[in-house]
């Protein structure tokens, strides 16, 4: 196909789908697997949702992580869940950027929300366990979900981290386990019509 024609088709698709009113917002802190119509390298991304608005969804494509980065990330999800944290997308983003900046550099992606056709495959730090699909071949995710089962966690009080330093301390102290059945995550941050970035991402 002619490169110019191909770019034109891609642009038309972006405009059409990004303006579509029938968009489905994804939940911050959960992991989704599915297809992305406007893909360049990964047609079926595995995405940790960092933020989702009507036009754009920001997240970390776990397929782009090295073995060590993925192990660190999954361990962090487990510890945050066990520590019963109440997080905002901004705190989580800054925490990852501070502790493991290569994850942001390698795998942070922005998607058109309406071009994503995703299914929930891991509750992550949310309490969406009953909505998880298990009919997939992501063995790492299945193993992660096993550690996140509510029966594996002990009851404890909800804790709120107001800074990345506090979050780091709470992760270290995650032995004070809390039930993730009461897990809460921050509500969506409304996206302004003129921006294409999550509110905390600097130019």
Structure description:
The protein has helices at residues 3-18, 67-82, 89-99, 101-107, 139-147, 164-172, and strands at 31-36, 46-52, 56-61, 85-86, 108-112, 116-122, 159-160. It contains six helices and seven strands; from the N terminus they run H-E-E-E-H-E-H-H-E-E-H-E-H. The protein has one domain (22-182). The chain is α+β, with helices and mostly antiparallel strands and 203 residues long. Strands 5-3-2-1-6 form a five-stranded antiparallel sheet. Strands 4-7 form a two-stranded parallel ribbon. It is globular and about 55 Å long. Strand 2 and strand 3 (56-61) form a beta hairpin. 33% of the residues lie in helices and 17% in strands. Mean pLDDT is 78; it is low at 12-21, 175-183 and 186-194.
Question: What's the structural blueprint in terms of helices and strands?
Answer:
Layout: H1 3-18, E1 31-36, E2 46-52, E3 56-61, H2 67-82, E4 85-86, H3 89-99, H4 101-107, E5 108-112, E6 116-122, H5 139-147, E7 159-160, H6 164-172
Parallel strand pairs: 4-7
Antiparallel strand pairs: 1-2, 1-6, 2-3, 3-5
Helix pairs in contact: 3-4, 3-6
